[in-house]
Amino acid sequence: MHIFRFFVTSLSLLSSPALAGDLDLKIVDAAGKAVSDAVITVRPAGGVPSEPIRFPWGTSMVQQNIAFVPHVLIVPVGATVRFPNKDKVRHHIYSFSKPAKFEIKLFGQDESRSYTFTSAGAVALGCNIHDQMSGFIKVVDTPFATKSNAAGQAHLGGLATGTAKMTVWHPLLKAKDNELVINVPIPPRGSATKTITLALRSAR
Questions:
Q1: 162 backbone dihedrals φ, ψ, rounded to 5°
Q2: Nearest CA-CA partner of 123 in 89, 79, 85
Q3: At residue 14, what are phi and psi to the nearest 5 degrees?
Q4: What is the pLDDT of residues 54-71, one digit of tens each?
Q5: How many CA atoms does the CB half-sphere of 104 hold within 13 Å?
Q6: Bridge partners of residue 84, in order along the sequence
Q7: Which of 35, 72, 77, 119 is least crowded, fewest Cβ atoms below 10 Å from its Cβ?
Q8: Is 204 or 120 the better-scoring residue by pLDDT?
Q9: Rounded CA gap, 16 and 109, in Å?
Q10: At residue 183, does pLDDT exceed 90?
Q11: Where are the beta strands (DSSP E) in the chain?
């Protein structure tokens, strides 16, 4: 009888979902204005899952209207990013960033090139032909990653309860490596809400 009770209790524990909560953020600057394209990554209590990381968005950064689209792209470590050229002019992409130093030499309209990113970190992109072009690829090693929208809002769900390590990165953030690290308590259910104020440099 005692063995049966133990067996039933064990099955119940195994079948119960792990406690998890959500994180809802508002990212603003010192004047209280919404900040878009801030990348938020979280490492929950207990670490991150071992499964391959997949995001719902694609792994392409398009050159269009003499700009990188999107301006900030989040990809997992090991991702191969495509660079399709939708402009009528040629582009020459390069990066001097520590996680990925590379160049993709001149290629024209409707051509595409690619590069595989093997190290986590922020990669700043430029074009040797068009100095005004700039873009950023944030290579991450956690599936819990997103970026703030035009309203400065960001949401991450399914985070294990406990104290999580949250990193906020923005290309204009006045901080080492352009990032801010904060410990955030995640509730067993429901949402943790927080407003993050970033000190930003002026855009050139």
A1: 125, -170
A2: 79
A3: -70, -35
A4: 999 999 999 999 999 999
A5: 21
A6: 112
A7: 119
A8: 120
A9: 54
A10: yes
A11: 20-29, 39-43, 62-63, 68-69, 72-76, 80-84, 91-97, 100-107, 112-116, 121-127, 134-140, 145-147, 153-160, 162-169, 179-186, 191-198
Tokens of 196: 């993050």
169 within 8 A of 147, measured Cβ to Cβ: no
End-to-end CA distance of the chain, in Å? 74
Count of all residues that appear for the chain in the document? 204
Q: Which conformational region is residue 194 in: left (phi greater than 0), alpha (psi within -120 to 50 degrees), or beta?
A: beta
Give the tens place of pLDDT for each residue, 28-52. 999 999 999 999 999 998 899 999 9
| Rounded Cα gap, residues 194 and 204, in angstroms | 29
Identify the three-state secondary structure at position 5: helix
Q: Identify the CA nearest to 126 among candidates 63, 174, 80.
A: 63
Cβ neighbours for 154, distance < 8 A, ≥ 6 positions apart: 24, 25, 27, 38, 40, 146, 147, 148
Question: What is the number of alpha carbons within 13 Å of residue 29 lying toward its C-beta?
Answer: 15
Side chain identity at 23, as an amino acid letter?
L
Residue 177 φ then ψ, to 5°: 60, 20
pLDDT range class, residue 7, cuts 50, 70, 90: very low
